[in-house]
Amino acid sequence: MYGKFLRPLLILIFETILGWSIIGTKPSHKKFVMVVAPHTSNWDFMIGHWARSTMRLNAWYIAKKELFIWPLGYLFKALGGFPVDRKKKTNLVDQIVEIFNTQSEFNITITPEGTRSYNPHWKTGFYQIALKANIPIQMVALDYSKKNVVIATPFFPTGNLEKDLEFMKSFYRLYKGKYPVKGVL
Questions:
Q1: Which terminus of the chain faces fewer neighbouring Cβ atoms within 10 Å, N or C?
Q2: Looking at the predicted structure, is the pLDDT value of residue 81 above 70?
Q3: Within 13 Å and on the Cβ side, how many CA atoms surround 41?
């Protein structure tokens, strides 16, 4: 995504100046849904962006369409953004599954809370996408307490939503967002 001159600057900012580390390895699957939590701050976007740039990982993400207005809209799209109208009742899951089915390599980053506020009821579109496209879920935690981006081993959803969500939440409970009271509990 970035040239040979900008990438070292991003690494310098991410690792040396801000003191963040990546724990785990870059996802090896060509297709996956990356689930990032806890999502408690606008800073999560930048930390995630710097981490993916450090790993040379091209990743798409979805965000509310209101973020894609001028002048930031151009920047968000250039950084892999895909605007979503959350008020429209469209079948976004099937649209994204179709993208997975037509691409040889593709991944998308989703925050299951759907908001930076505490939400005990995760949105499950990411799960349905992974299940329908037969691709793994790649869990990534933003741990502000230790300044780590933690990459878990990918897993394929079993079809038992409640069991798989509890498995995922048990992983994320180990890590603290920027504002822990807003995160996974």
A1: C
A2: yes
A3: 14
Specify the pTM. 0.84
Report the length, in residues, of the chain.
185
Smallest CA-to-CA distance from 129 within 52, 42, 62, 46 is with 62
Separation between Cα atoms, residue 179 and residue 177, nearest integer Å: 5
Tokens 């008020």, residue located: 87
Determine the 3-state secondary structure of 34 from DSSP.
strand
User: In angstroms, rounded to a whole number, what is the distance separating the alpha carbons of residues 110 and 129?
Assistant: 11
143, two tokens? 């741990």
Contact criterion met (CB below 8 Å) for 166 and 39: no
> What SS3 class is residue 67?
helix
Place of tokens 């005990």: 120
Query: Rounded CA gap, 158 and 9, in Å?
Result: 41
- Beta bridge partners of residue 84, listed in sequence order: 64
3-state secondary structure of 16: helix
| Single-letter residue type at 34 | M
Residues 105-117 pLDDT 10s: 999 999 888 666 6
Encoding tokens for residue 47?
């930390």
Tell me, what amino acid is at 153? T
Measure CA of the first residue to CA of the last residue in the chain; give whole Å: 34
Q: What's the token pair of residue 94?
A: 């099937």
